[in-house]
Structure formats: structure tokens, C-alpha cells
Amino acid sequence: MGGWVTWGQQIGDDLTYECMTAAYDAGVNFFDTAEVYADGKSEIAMGNAVKQAGWKRSDLVLSTKIFWGGKGINDKGLSRKHIIEGLDASLARLQMDYVDLVFCHRPDFHTPIEETVRAMTHVINQGKAFYWGTSEWSAQELMEAYTIARQEHLIAPLMEQPQYNMLERERVEKEYARLYAWMGLGTTIWSPLASGLLTGKYNDGLPDGTRASLPGYEWLREEFEKPETQVKIEKVKHLTPIATELGCTVAQMALAWCLKNPNVSTVITGASRTSQVTENMKAIDVLPKLTCDVMARIEAVLQNKPQSAEDFR
Questions:
Q1: Catalytic pick from 17, 37, 131, 176?
Q2: For the segment 196-221, what is each residue's pLDDT rounded down to a tens digit?
Q3: Which of 275, 253, 145 is nearest to 199 (CA)?
Q4: Domain of residue 149, CATH code
Q5: Structurally, how many domains does the chain consist of?
Q6: Is 98 tagged catalytic?
Q7: Is residue 87 one of the residues assigned to a domain?
């Protein structure tokens, strides 16, 4: 479960606690946030919820992401300075001694990758994180970081957090295809519902009360108004009968579809209500229903499979 948009912005601490508790009770133990989410308030909300719940720390897998830490000239990027200072600030907001996973939130074209690898190795050796990874790095950048780590006896990245869903497939299914076996890359995918598009709630236009109506998310509204987005909405409408036959919602089918890919380590879900958490968790029950025939029917609607991708069965 992740805190982008929701924790510290769309919902307050009490509801964050309720949603995280509902997820935990359903078996979720991995919670994800970032220093940039709600200007750090997401980390505060998550840390408060963990403390309030009294969960055993070793039972949890917690992650944060470093890149955009503030408006100051040294508060962003992947320099050694910001990685160390940024992670220290994140840990203070989380009220934690360490995170299990720390991600480089985006590639930094102004910092040599070797400097980033060395800084991530340092924070791990200091016990401030157990593993490090990336988010939305290219395959070439990942290979460079991995190669540098191996050559210099440093700690290599182990996981990527890319966007992946029925409507966004190229990077996970094609670009990273060789990396899963070559470097043992794991993925913690974000936006499995395409920012809500795959819930079907935008089939008849932009409703009030969604993230697209929030201040600062004008870019999301603009995306929904593009002609290519309307094409995607038509696909969602054609997916609805398939979901109905499976006895689930399009959202649950979309989450299960992501889980069907063996190169997806985990799917990050979001929720602004506990009822959404409950509904999302039911995707696990849909997974066995995605037979080869059902997957073929879905593929016939999507018609966007990367050419070099292998079928996941």
C-alpha cells in the first residue's frame, strides 16, 4: 500500500491509520511513501500510523524514495549530500531508525551514477536502509549502476518501481525483459489502475472528489482530456463485461492482471477510504480466474502488447 496523493494530503492521520490497519489486517505488510509526497507529510502520517498501531517493526517492510526533498538548491537530486541528508530527514519524519527499502525516485542527469551508487552503499552500511533501488530508471541506467557496483565492490540496486498497468506496458514487459534474470531485478509497480482510469469511474467524464480535481494535479486533468485518453477509456468500457463475467470489478481484474506477470514482485495500491482497501484486496481472489482464455480476451481489447514480450501464463 502506498501514500502518494492520499496520506497527508487527501486524507488525514486518522483515516491513514484506518486504511493502513485495514490493509495490514488483510495481510499487507509493505507500505511505501516518499520525501516528496505531500511535502513530507505523507511520511509523517505513515510513521504516526505505524506507531499508533504498535506493529512489530520486523514484521513490516517500509520504503521511502529520495529525489525531491524541498525547494533549496541542495534539497533535490541524487548527490551524496542529498541522499544522506534527505534520508536522515525522512527517517526523522517517519520516526524510524531505518527503512527496509530506499529508492532513487528518478534518475539524476546532473550526478554521476557512481556517486549515487557509493552514497546508497554508504547509507546501507550505516544501517539506515537494508536495500536500495530505483524508480523510473531506464534499463541502461540500471545496468550501469549494477555494473559499477560489481566492479567497485559496492552494493547494487535490487528493485525498480516503474509504472505498470493494462494501459502502460512497454517498460516492464519489454525494456526490462533481460534484467529480471541478469541482475535479479524485482519490481514494486505503481499506478496499477492508471491513476483511476481502470476503475471505470472516468467512463462518463471527470467526477468531483477524485485526485484529478485536487490542487496541484491539473496535469492529471489535462491527461484525461487528451484524445488518446479517450481511446483508453473506450478500452475500459470493453473490459467491463469480462470483469462482470468473472464476478469482479474492472479495478480488481486490473490489479490481478498485474499480479499475473511473474516479473511483478508486488503491486502498490492506494486508497482514500477503508472500503477501497477492502475492495482492492479482493483482487487476490480474481487471480486464479485469469486463465489463458480470459487473458486472451483481455489482450484482444487492449491490443497494446509490446512486440518482443513473451506471454505470461
A1: 37
A2: 899 988 887 776 666 666 677 777 77
A3: 253
A4: 3.20.20.100
A5: 1
A6: no
A7: yes
